[in-house]
Amino acid sequence: MKILTAFKAVPDPDGDPRAAAAAANARWVINYFDAIALEEAVRLRERGAAAQVVAVTIGPPRVEEQVRAALAMGADRAVRVDDERPVDPYFVAQVLQAVVQREAPGLVILGKQAVDDDSNQVGQMLAGRLGWPQATFVSRLELSDGGARARCTRETDAGLQVVEVRLPAVITTDLRLNEPRYVSLPALIKARRQAIELLSVAQLSPAARPRTRVLRTEPAASRPPGTRVTSVAELVTRLREEAKVL
Amino acid sequence: MDFAWSSSQRELFDAVVAFARKELGRELIQRDAQGTFDREGWTKCGQMGIPGLPVPEEYGGAGQDALTTVGALEHLGYACRDNGLTFSLNAHLWTAVMPLVAFGTEEQKRRFLPGLADGRLIGGNAMSEPQAGSDAYSLRTTAVQDGAHYVLNGSKIYVTNGPVADLLVVFATLDRARGAPAITAFLVQRDTPGMTVGRKLEKMGLRTSPMAELFFEDCRVPAENRLGREGAGTSLFTHSMNWERGCILATAVGSMRYLLERCIRFARERKQFGQAIGKFQLVATRIVDMQLRLTTARHLLYYGGWLRSQGKTAILEAAMAKLYLSEAWVQSCQDAIQIHGGAGYMVEYEVERELRDALGSRLYSGTNEIQRTLIASLLGL
């Protein structure tokens, strides 16, 4: 079975938030939920449940560093759909649908959302467009029925829910599914020599275009610094008299 | 002349920093007090590929040149506060791995390098003896050939990684009367009968890097474990010391960067007499000197690494790097303590440990007196 995973290069959420706002200077990383998706796919292949892992992204040449990181993590092949427009969920779902039709994977694993825009829509839209079953927010994934089905534990507000989907299906990952591995230095070096396959939106889905226009992004207002108190008595007094919460 | 790292080098360094910040240096105050080696951290460094950085890819390493390797180690020293662990890695790299890469037979390389490169094996080196320190070639440990073996007798001291090493490069003489030309190196594996690891030595700093004495009593080493030909010990030692001097303090440059950034942060935040102490010129000039030392040290380190990467010799540069980087590291540690005031002297602030860890650098890989002597002789004096 072939597994297709997609990932988005996002500004490093652990980096300087001002740099993230000024994307030009940001340090880019693979969206963490997508790294979890890729890790899961690689683990399935390592356990013999899959034969090939293909990692796909949409982005300009700048994201090739993250594409190589995906190869170093263990993807067998990497595809970059060359496009420099800011993406939105429907556009991504359209493009991924075309990639899925080209690659014919038995399973698609995606992060549940990207940490930069927090849309949380691509997996659902993609499954809808493909007419495939979906399991979202998955924290545990087991293949059953000789690889014909996937038992997925979903994290919901009500608790852990177990669903079973028939493959091919779209699965989106939650935080607790796994902890992505560190990319070793030899793997990074080896990934430099691997080819990255290039596709274009024109080839895949000529009518697709991003429809969302971001009007404005502002950095979050900075909070005033806290103060240090020297005793519990002072804390209580100030909570009562200054903060007026007691 | 090009001073920029390539994007692939920066990618490696970023990966090292992210890894070290997350995985290394746990419970360090406690482990420093107890002198506990971080075996788990070592294994993770191995999986990351750090001990295999300069090892050719055909033997399971990353196949990086000297300059990239010291760059990666500088970043490791910056992000990992466990200077003992990085010292153990340095000893492994420069006194076991590189001699094996340079002098090992094909069979020896195939047998040992993959394990040394991925951290399954820990390497070390046994040269110093109680009576043979700076006068290294006056060693008394003997090796006598007996059929397909050499029989080793004697003792070694200050063996970094001794208590945990799987493979040691041991220097012995075939004939005490013949002096330096009789010195020969051997690869001795852990648990070889006749080799005992003595008590763990308590140190002032680098306490998380284990060190021991070694005793050889009719220790039979297979002849195929001789490293280099008979009598090649001195050229092997000189070669390995040259690498060691030039590269071992890459991690110290990283530590200096860490201390500088910490001091800048502290001097901006700490207020006395109504203003940040960094506004006082006495504090500011100390930090300026730390920056100056860091930049000078870094350029010396990179230049030596660049020469090696070009296949050129770097004997003078290696001696200067060892001498200057160690003095600069110690001075910057002292400055960091002074800037932090009383807090800097407290164990919990983790500044004083850096000084204790730094002080040994003026002694190991040849004392700084030996470096000056070497530089003077290279200058024709």
Describe what this molecule looks like in 3D.
The complex is a heterodimer of chains A (246) and B (381). With 246 residues, chain A is α/β, with parallel strands linked by helices. Chain A has 8 helices and 11 strands. In chain A, the strands form 2 sheets. In chain A, strands 9-8-7-10-6-1-4-5-11 form a 9-stranded mixed beta sheet, sandwiched between helices. In chain A, helix 3 (64-73) packs across helix 6 (185-191) and helix 4 packs across helix 5 (122-130). Chain B is built from 13 helices and 10 strands. In chain B, 51% of the residues are buried. The model of chain B has no long low-confidence stretch (mean pLDDT 95). In chain B, helix 4 (66-79) runs parallel beside helix 8 (250-269) and helix 10 runs antiparallel to helix 13. By secondary structure, chain B is an alpha+beta fold. Chain B has helices spanning 7-23, 28-34, 39-48, 66-79, 83-103, 106-117, 233-247, 250-269, 281-309, 315-340, 342-345, 352-359, 368-378; strands spanning 123-126, 142-146, 149-160, 167-173, 183-189, 195-200, 211-222, 226-227, 271-272, 275-276. The interface between A and B is medium-sized, with 12 and 23 residues.
What is the count of DSSP helices of chain B, taking H or I runs of 4+ residues?
Answer: 13
Order of helices and strands of chain B: HHHHHHEEEEEEEEHHEEHHHHH
Tell how many strands the DSSP assignment of chain B holds.
10
Percent helix among the residues of chain A? Answer: 25-40%
Task: Provide a compact summary of the structure.
The complex is a heterodimer of chains A (about 250) and B (about 375). Chain A is α/β, with parallel strands linked by helices.
Topology (elements, then pairings):
The complex is a heterodimer of chains A (246) and B (381).
Chain A lengths: L1 E5 L2 E3 L5 H5 L6 E3 L1 H15 L5 E8 L4 H10 L3 E6 L6 H15 L3 E5 L10 H9 L3 E11 L4 E8 L2 E8 L2 E5 L11 H7 L5 E4 H4 L27 H10 L5
Parallel strand pairs in A: 1-4, 1-6, 4-5, 5-11, 6-10, 7-10
Antiparallel strand pairs in A: 2-3, 7-8, 8-9
Chain B lengths: L6 H17 L4 H7 L4 H10 L17 H14 L3 H21 L2 H12 L5 E4 L15 E5 L2 E12 L6 E7 L9 E7 L5 E6 L10 E12 L3 E2 L5 H15 L2 H20 L1 E2 L2 E2 L4 H29 L5 H26 L1 H4 L6 H8 L8 H11 L3
